[in-house]
Amino acid sequence: MIVVGVDGSRTGLEAAGWAAAEAELRQEPLTVAHAVPRWVCEGAVHYAEVAQWMRDGAETVLSAACDRARRVWPQVRMEGVLLPGDPRSALIKASEGAELLVVGSRGIGGVRGLLIGSVAYGTAAHARTDVVLIHEPPASPRGEIVAGADGSPGAARALGFAFAEAELRGARLRAVRAWAWPHPGGFEPASREREQDTLRSLKESLAPHRERHPGVHVIAEVVHGHPVEVLKETSARADLLVVGTRGHGQLAGMLIGSISQALLHHAPCPLAVVRG
C-alpha cells in the first residue's frame, strides 16, 4: 500500500498524481488521505453545522485529489479516507505498514517564505516508513534517479531503494558520493589520489546491489564538494533523489541528519527519504 497525504494545495495534488504513478509501477493499492480535526469526525453536537461544512470541504479535497490521481493512472486501486487529528500524527499512523508515504512539500497552511511545511518535515522525520516529498515533479520522465551514497548503513538502505526504483522505471541510476573534509580554514583541497580511493569505495558499496539488480545501468560518481550542493546539482535533471535519514557524521539522537534536512528544503526534484 502507498499512502498520500493531501490538503487541497497544488503540491498536494501533484503528490496525488506522483503517488498514483508509483502505485501503478509497484502494483500496490493507493490510499488518498486528508486529515481534519478530531471533533469534526466525531460529530460535534454544539457545532454540528460547522462540522458538516468542514466534512463537506474535506470530501471535496479528497475528491479532487482522487480525480487527479485517476487522470494519471485510472486503473490504480484507490480509496479516499478522512483521518481524524493532527495531519502529522494522523499520516504517520495511517502509513504504518505501508510501503511508502507521499506528501507535498508545502500545504495550504504553509508559512510564507518557508520552503517546506511542518507536515512534510514532521512526516519525513518521524514516519516509520520511507517518505517521498514532492516539490515540483518533472513534466515528463527524465530517465535518471540520483542516490546519495556516503558509505553509511543508512546510505546502503537508500541505495537498495534507488536500485529498485531504477529497475521499476527502466531508468539509469547515478550513485553520488560527495567528499569535502572540513578544516579550520575551509575544506580539504581536491586530490586525485583521494578521489580514486573514494571512487573505489563507492563501487564496492554498489556491488551487492548490482548483483540483485543486474539490469540497472549504474553511474558511480565522486564529486569534491559539500554534499548538499553536490546532490542538488546532480539531481537537477533527475526524476527522483534518494537519501537516507542519517549519514556519517550525524549526531546521535537526531531523527534526520543535516544533509537530509537541507535537501528537504532545497531538492530540485521529488525527494525520497529512506529509513535506516
From TrEMBL:
It comes from the Bacteria. Residues 2-135, 145-275 form the UspA domain. InterPro entries: Rossmann-like_a/b/a_fold, Universal_stress_UspA, UspA. Belongs to the universal stress protein A family. This is Nucleotide-binding universal stress UspA family protein. It comes from Nonomuraea rubra.
